Prior knowledge:
The protein has five helices and four strands, in the order H-E-E-H-H-H-E-E-H. It has a four-stranded antiparallel sheet.
Amino acid sequence: MSLILITHDLGLVADTAARVAVMYAGSVVESALVEAIFKAPAHPYTKGLLHSIPGGQRGSALEPIPGAPPDLAKVPTGCPFHPRCRFTVELCRTQKPALQQLDAGRMTACHRHVELLDGQL
């Protein structure tokens, strides 16, 4: 049996799901097992969502994602998340990243996923 759960509650996702697909501006930007997403996100939006959860590490401040989601009638060129992303480079502004397979069961749509996963970002 399968269940599709659409939510912004990542605590609920952690408690109930085995796999998660993170969407931004109507497209999947990352998909993986829940444990992989929480341990090492491969997309800046996923990373931003995880850092904006209340009740994270004790004494740590919330890190809200800057800006606002795009108007879906006027999605920016390139990566739709680039206006809000701290890691944007010129390629992000001009070319929409394709959803690509990273390993068995893990996909991301980010030009900088290698640096993000290596802890360089």
